[in-house]
Specification:
about 45% helix, binds flavin-adenine dinucleotide, 4-stranded antiparallel β-sheet, globular, 4-stranded mixed β-sheet
Length: about 425
């Protein structure tokens, strides 16, 4: 396998670098330095994604006919690696990476024309309504009821029930929802996939606090309640009761993606932090943490694991053409990438030590509505604990890592 880039690919890399240097401005960089999870608040996120759109780079994985840039797998990888290495914001995935591929594959021409362009322009924001209070890993048990009806405006469903852990529902204009349209037969056969306007009467969004503390503009998960919410039948994707097929297709996109470049960047940052922190010895003999043999061993182990993930990502993505999914291999990547994300955040917390306690002061101030105090330690320390706590989520969302292991055993290893 040849992993060297060609001259053309290196020239493309330079074009991307030049663009990032100019588009990823000081204001966006300052916001990202305070981000606990790789996202900005909605205004910042839209500003960044519109810059990508104007350059024609908002949707590297979309086929050209829908506005994708027509890149080769190598170009897509280079773009992802360069944006991650520069520490750029993560693109909000629910529209561009999750519902859009489903609309492209299973939507009607009218649905494609109506929904895809505003997703590409980041004019319309989406959230994902899969999980329910009693249905997470066992998603097929979901119960949000969609009752068919008809009125002067036409055929519709009335939705009743709730969705939970809905990321950024407070920002969303639309939600894609799995709903129960039948209780007959196998559970998977009574599910439909519908698109719901969040402004429809009967929808309430309620914020769920998380252990990474309240940070302004960074509320992450919510519960969404549906009380007789009217959804026109033309907002259903594909056939009634066939939603499970579309839902599974979407999950392959949710779990895919290349993570190694971002992890390499986080490790480089960690090495810089360790060069600034005292070692584990006593007094003036302590030296730098970066020179501590035990720390170096832990850092090197992580670097090796990320490099192995990188080789696997390159191997898998080089076999995938634009607009297609990587199938069950996405479970392998999700599992490894999230374990590494958590391990990097753990070692970073260890490296920063007591300076990470600034987080506690932030959280109390936030909860009590007081201004956040000055941090006693270096600037980089303030977000280390929120990131550490935030990344506990990574082994749960997108299907828990235990469930990914089951999928790998069955579909990749054939056990
Ligand atoms: C930060 C965050 C954001 C999220 N965002 C969204 C979103 O936007 N939209 C959305 O729909 N959902 C979202 N989720 C929900 C997420 O998909 C679910 O939390 C996940 O599927 C697990 O479901 P659950 O929480 O109900 O846990 P459960 O399914 O109750 O699992 C509890 C524990 O049992 C284990 N377990 C369950 N079944 C098995 C099995 N068969 N074999 C082995 N172990 C098993 C699990 O691994 C877990 O450790 C989000 C979750 C988080 C944490």
């Amino acid at each position: 396998m040849n992993l060297e880039f060609t001259q053309e690919e290196l020239a493309f890399r330079d074009t991307v670098r030049d663009w990032i240097a100019q588009a990823y401005d000081a204001d966006l960089r300052a916001q990202m330095a305070r981000s606990k999870n790789g996202y900005l608040d909605k205004a910042g996120q839209v500003r960044w994604q519109k810059k990508l759109f104007e350059r024609g780079w908002a949707a590297p994985n979309w086929p050209e006919e829908y506005g994708g840039p027509g890149w080769t797998p190598s170009q897509r990888y280079i773009f992802q690696a360069e944006t991650a290495a520069a520490g750029c914001p993560t693109v909000s995935p629910m529209g561009l990476k999750m519902v859009a591929p489903v609309i492209m594959k299973y939507g009607t021409p009218e649905q494609k024309a109506r929904f895809l362009p505003p997703i590409l322009r980041s004019d319309v924001w989406w959230c994902q309504g899969y999980s329910e209070p009693n249905s997470g890993s066992d998603l097929a048990s979901l119960q949000l009821r969609a009752t068919p009806g008809h009125d002067e405006q036409g055929a519709h469903y009335l939705l009743n029930g709730s969705k939970i852990w809905t990321t950024h529902a407070q920002f969303a204009d639309w939600i894609f929802c799995l709903v129960r349209t039948s209780k007959d037969g196998a559970r998977q056969e009574g599910i439909s996939f519908v698109l719901v306007d969040m402004r429809t009467p009967g929808i309430t969004v309620s914020a769920l606090p998380t252990l990474d503390g309240p940070v302004e503009g960074q509320q992450e998960v919510n519960q969404v309640f549906f009380d007789n919410v009217r959804v026109p039948v033309e907002n259903r994707i594909g056939d009634e009761n066939k939603g499970w097929t579309y839902a599974k297709y979407l999950l392959e996109f949710e779990r895919g993606g290349s993570s190694a470049p971002g992890l390499h960047q986080a490790l480089a940052k960690l090495a810089k932090i360790a060069a600034d922190q005292p070692g584990n010895g006593d007094g003036p003999e302590a030296g730098r943490l970066l020179d501590d043999p035990d720390f170096r061993r832990r850092l090197a182990t992580l670097r090796l694991r990320v490099t192995a993930l990188e080789a696997t990502e390159l191997r898998i993505f080089s076999n995938v053409s634009s607009g297609t999914s990587i199938g069950a291999a996405s479970s392998m990547l999700k599992l490894t990438a999230t374990e590494l994300q958590q391990a990097v955040s753990e070692l970073t917390l260890d490296a920063v030590g007591p300076a990470a306690l600034a987080f506690v002061a932030d959280s109390w101030a936030g909860l009590q509505g007081r201004p956040v105090p000055e941090h006693p330690g270096p600037d980089y320390a303030a977000v280390v604990a929120p990131r550490y706590f935030n990344y506990r989520k990574a082994s749960i969302y997108g299907g828990s890592n235990e469930v990914q292991r089951n999928i790998i055993a069955k579909l990749v290893l054939g056990l």
